Amino acid sequence: MEDDHPDLPWPLSGADPLRDEVLAAYADPQRGHHGTRHLREVLAHLDTLSQHETTYDRTPVLLAAWFHDAVYDGERDAEERSATWAEEALPAFADAATVAEVVRLVRLTEHHRPEEGDANGAALSDADLAILAAPPERYDAYVAAVRTEYAHLPDEVFNKGRADVLRALSSKPRLFHTAYGAAHWEAAARPNLAREIEALEATG
């Protein structure tokens, strides 16, 4: 496993077995959007933010990126269960303050509403939501991949739940909380959200 994705930044030395365990969770073939590609993209977006003068604490933010969808099965409380995994697994490799920050950040990805001045939360939230600003073809592939993760739900149930999530996101004054995200991702994301909500409402 350790040679499968050598380019994915993992900030803990001596914890490769844990990294491989988390990576195996993302590689579960039952996953759609929330698989290894998503992890890779979130880490790449964090790198982009870092390269454009977005400051954040690298170790806890990268660890939170790894753990934020470590549990994802289409059921409730996935973020909380992911946070619990981090809370239980990381103390052997990181100090208590780092573990607490990772757990806080993983929980934040449930709503993507970092407080003003929360640089770590803003960076992780923006990196996670950057898919919303993808070109239409990539965005449509993302939407289809999300649907496969909820194949156990009938269309009317999924469509309502998905529309509720998207409306909650759309109601935010800002989707993106870093200067780079606001400047480069906000304008592209809004039309994608509006288009998907319109499609869901048309079928609901």
Name the features:
Hypothetical protein af1432, mainly alpha
What does this structure look like?
The chain is mainly α and 204 residues long. It has a single domain, classed as Orthogonal Bundle (Hypothetical protein af1432), CATH 1.10.3210.10. The protein is 62% helix and 0% strand. Helix 2 crosses helix 6, helix 3 runs parallel beside helix 6 and helix 8 packs antiparallel against helix 10. The longest helix has 18 residues. The radius of gyration is 17 Å and the shape is globular. The N and C termini lie far apart (43 Å). The model has no long low-confidence stretch (mean pLDDT 93).
Shape: globular
Computed Rg: 17 Å
CATH topology: Hypothetical protein af1432
First-residue to last-residue Cα separation: 43 Å
Q: What's the CATH C level? A: Mainly Alpha
Q: List the secondary-structure elements in sequence, H or E.
A: HHHHHHHHHH
Q: How many DSSP H or I helices?
A: 10
* Mean of pLDDT: 93
User: Using DSSP, what is the number of strands?
Assistant: 0
Going by CATH, the homologous superfamily would be: Hypothetical protein af1432
Quickly give the structural class: mainly alpha
Instruction: Please report which band the strand proportion falls in: under 5%, 5-15%, 15-25%, 25-35%, 35-45% or over 45%.
Output: under 5%
Q: Sheet bearing the most strands, described?
A: none
Helix coverage percent = 55-70%
The total domain count is 1
- What is the CATH architecture term? Orthogonal Bundle
